[in-house]
Amino acid sequence: MIADVEVATLARAWGIAKPTHVLANVATTIAMKKPAAGLDGLIVGETAISTLDHGLHLRGFAIEDLVRQATYSEVAYLLLHGELPTHEQLADFRAILAEAAEVPPAILQLLEELPLHVAPMDALRTAISALAHFDEQPNETDDTASLGKAIRLLGQVPVLIAARQRLTRGLELIDSDPELSFAGNLLSLLTGRVPTARDERALDQSLICYADLEFNTSTFTARIVASTGSDLHSAVTAAVGALKGPLHGGANEDVLDVLLAVDSPARADKFVRDAIAKKRRLAGFGHRVYRDRPDPRAVVLKDICRELATTDEQHRLEEIAAAIEAAMWLHKQLRPNVDWPIARLYRMLGFDAELFTPLFVIARVAGWSAHVLEQQRDNRLIAPRANYTGPPPRTFVPLRER
Ligand code: ACO
C-alpha cells in the first residue's frame, strides 16, 4: 500500500501530475524489481498530442480516419495548433509553408560539398543543424518563435532532401510549386515530374502515418533537449539522430533487404524460421507498445499497398510480404509495424531505400515540433536517476602508486 504522501513525493520526483501514472510506474518498477530495461512500459510524462491507448489517435482523431479522409497538411496543422483547420486556415497554412520553404544558398552549397559517401539521412541531420545558423531567431524558445521555426522546418526539410538527392546526381534543382499539395510538391522536388494523383495520395497517406506517435524514442529525445531550454533546431537535430537507428526509423530502409531476400512466398516460412533460430531481428516487425494488438498504421497501409500494386512484380512482393507476415505470426507471434508496408509503398513510388528514413523525417517534423512546443509551454528539466551497478566507494590510489 502506498500512502498518498508518498505518491505526491514520487509525482514531484518524476515530474508527473496524475497519481494514477505514479502508481503505474511504481507497479512496473516493483514488478521488475529494478527499472524496466529500455523504460519499457514506464509513463514518463503527459501529452495532449497523441496516444497509443486505443490504436493511435492524434489530438483525439483515429489514425484510420486521418489517413482515409485528411491530408498531411491538415494533420500537420492539427498537431501544431491542436484543432483541424478550416478551409481558410488551411489555405493560409499552406501559403506560409510554401513561403517558408526557401533554403539559404549556403546550405545548398553545403549539401553539394558533403562527401558523396554521406548517406541522405546524415546529410539531412547536418543540414537541419546548419539551418539554425541562418534562422531569424536561432535561440528564441518562446511559443511564437518555436512555432515559426517549426513551420519553416516543415517547409525546408523536403527541399533539403530533394536538393541533396539531385545535387549528388548532377541534376538541376527543382523549384517548389505552391500550387501543389505537400506530397505533390515533394514528389515534384524529388523527381522533376508532375506527380500522378495516385502517387501523390499514397505518399500523403504515408506521411500521415509517420506524423506522430506519442512518446516514441525520437520524440522523447526532442522533448529532453527542449526541456533543457535549448532551441527547436537542436531538438529536431537530436531527434533525427535518434530516428536514424535501425531499431527505430532506420528500420524502414532495412525492410526491403528482408523482402528481397525471399524470392517466393513458398520460401517465407523457412526464411523466418532460420532468422528466428539465429536470433536475427527482421526489420519491420515488433513494436515496443503494439505487442498485444496490431499497429493500426501497418493495417491501413497494407490495404493501401494492395490498392497501389499494379505490376506483376508489385503483386508478387505483396504476396511475399503476406507470407513472411504469416510466418512471423506463426513462429514468433510478432506483427508488422508501420515500416513493413511503408517500404513497399515507397518502392512502388520509385524511391531508393536510402530515402525512406529521410521521408519519415519530413512527416515527423510536425510531431517532434508539436512535442517541443508542448514541453516548452509547461517545462520542467527532464533529468532522471540511474540504478547504480558499479563498484562501491573505494580509496583513490595516486598514479605513481599504481
Ligand atoms: N524480429 C525477430 N524477433 C524479434 C523482433 C524482430 N523484428 N522484434 C522483437 N523480437 C523478439 C526479441 O528477440 C525477443 O525475443 P525473445 O523473447 O525470444 O528474446 C522478443 O521478440 C521481444 O523483443 P523485445 O526486445 O523485448 O522488444 P523491444 O520492445 O525491446 O523491441 C523493437 C522493439 C526494437 C521495435 C523490436 O521489435 C525490433 O528490433 N524490431 C525490428 C526493428 C524495427 O522494425 N523497428 C521499427 C519499430 S517502429 C518505429 O520505430 C517506426
Strand content: under 5%
The unique ligands bound to this protein are: acetyl coenzyme *A
User: Low-confidence spans: pLDDT under 50, at least 5 residues?
Assistant: none
What is the straight-line distance between the termini? 50 Å
| Rg (C-alpha, Å) | 23 Å
* Helix share, percent: 55-70%
Output the CATH homologous superfamily of the domain at 79-239 and 355-368: Citrate Synthase, domain 1
What's the story with the biggest beta sheet?
Answer: 3 strands, antiparallel
In the CATH scheme, the class of the domain at 79-239 and 355-368 would be Mainly Alpha
Rough shape? globular
Strand order of the largest sheet: 1-2-3
The helix-and-strand class reads mainly alpha
Please identify, by name, the CATH architecture of the domain at 79-239 and 355-368.
Answer: Orthogonal Bundle
User: Can you tell me the CATH topology of the domain at 79-239 and 355-368?
Assistant: Citrate Synthase, domain 1
How many strand units?
3
Report mean pLDDT, rounded to a whole number: 93
H and E string: HHEEEHHHHHHHHHHHHHHHH
Report on the structure:
Among the domains are: 79-239 and 355-368, Citrate Synthase, domain 1 (Orthogonal Bundle), CATH 1.10.580; 251-348, Cytochrome P450-Terp, domain 2 (Cytochrome p450-Terp, domain 2). Helix 7 runs antiparallel to helix 8 and helix 8 packs parallel to helix 9. The protein is mostly helical and 402 residues long. The chain is globular and about 70 Å long. The N and C termini lie far apart (50 Å). The chain contains 18 helices and three strands. The mean pLDDT is 93. Strands 1-2-3 form a three-stranded antiparallel beta sheet. It binds acetyl coenzyme *A. Residues 38, 247-249, 251, 281-288, 332, 334, 337-339 line the site of acetyl coenzyme *A. Acetyl coenzyme *A binds next to loops.
